[in-house]
Every structure is written in structure tokens, then in C-alpha cells.
Amino acid sequence: MLPALKENISIMEQLNTQLFLWLNATPDSPHWLINFATILAKDVIGIVPLLVVGLWLWSPKQCLDSRRELVLKTATALLYATLFSFVIGVVFPHPRPFAIGLGYHWLNHSADTSFPSDHGTFIFTFSLAFLFWHRAWSGIALLTIGVLIAWSRIYLGVHWPLDMVGGLLVGMIGCLTAELGWTFYGKALLTFAHKVYRQLFALPIRWGWTQH
User: Residue 1: its pLDDT value, please?
Assistant: First the structure.
């Protein structure tokens, strides 16, 4: 059993390496494409907190409760996924491509463990949460952005393809755990979050800048 497992892992590593070398940018790659990938890899992830804040503060009244539930369920899914990702990274550390001198490195990054990808975990968890708990179109749109971010970080040489697959799988597990847990603590968490929000944002709420 163990030799078969080692053989399968070896095959996966070979496939991982081949895919990485196929996707990784080289000195002959167009500079505009490297710049575009850099923007995707560093900046586009910022849509996540902006979207979350916008949904909580300014959703229409008729869907305010459902949107805020979506925000909290997404937040708990992200929390679970981040925890799972951290544990996997500690138990099964995997070097980044540039840490072993493979390919070309176009983005400054520490040589910490790469699997699963933190960026992949974050954006895929968020995307799947919207796919499961909001609308299909919003989830698909965010998944498309997630795939572009995943591609960019492989293209720039800081991640392996399987790091991103790992992020997607961890995101699925995070969403599943959040869905199962919501039955037990969801209502209490929503009540508590509303209480804290109304205390911290009392003035903006009173002035009509944000929803109650």
C-alpha cells in the first residue's frame, strides 16, 4: 500500500512540475502580460473585503437580513478554511518553486510553505460561499476572478498549480463546515454581530450613512 502511495505522489509531483513549467512566465514572455499578472496577483484580492463591507452596510432593506447572514456565513467559512490551510501547511510543508530553483520568479515573496495557497484559499472560499448562498451568477463571476488570480500566481512563479487546487478544496471544506455549524450558532452570531455593529456605527446609522 505504501509503495503505491509513494508512486502516486511521485506522479502528482511530476504533473505539478510539468504544469508549472508550462504556465510559468519566462524572460521571453510579454512585459504587459507580466504586469497584468502582477496586478491580479497583488491587488484584485482587495475586492473581497470591499464587497463584504458593502453588503453589510448598504444592502437594500428588503434583503438586508439575508445579505448580512451571507456576510457572516462567508466570514466563518473563511475562518475555517484559513485554519485548515494553516494546519495542512504545518503538517505537510511544501517548498515554493523558486525555493528549489525551478522556473522564473517575478514576484517578491517569502520562501514559506506553498500548499495550499493562501490567496487561493481566500478567493475560492469567498467565491464558493457566494455560489452556494447568494446567486449562481455572482459565484461564477467570483470563481472566474479566482481562476485568474490562481493563474497569475503560478505565472509569476510563486505557486504550483496544485497549490491552487488545494486552495479550492480547502475552500469547499470551509464552506461545508460553516454550513453545518450555522445550524448551531448562526442565529446567536447574527444577533451578536448586529449588536456590536449598532454600537460601533451608531452615528453613521443615525445620520443615514449606513443601514440600521
Answer: 47
* Burial (Cβ within 10 Å: 0-12, 13-18, ≥19) of residue 42: middle
CATH number for the domain spanning 77: value is 1.20.144.10
Please say if the pLDDT value at position 55 is more than 50.
yes
Percent over 70 (pLDDT), the chain: 96
| Closest by CA position to 159, among listed 113, 209, 90 | 113
Parent domain of 61: 26-186
The pLDDT of residue 133 is 93
Report yes or no on 16 lying in a domain: no
Domain count, the chain: 1
Q: How far apart are the first and last CA of the chain?
A: 59
**Any domain includes 133:** yes
Domain assignment present for 147: yes
Structural domain contains residue 201: no
Single pTM value for the model: 0.90
Between 8 and 57, the higher pLDDT residue: 57
Burial tier of 69 (Cβ tally within 10 Å: 0-12, 13-18, 19+)? middle
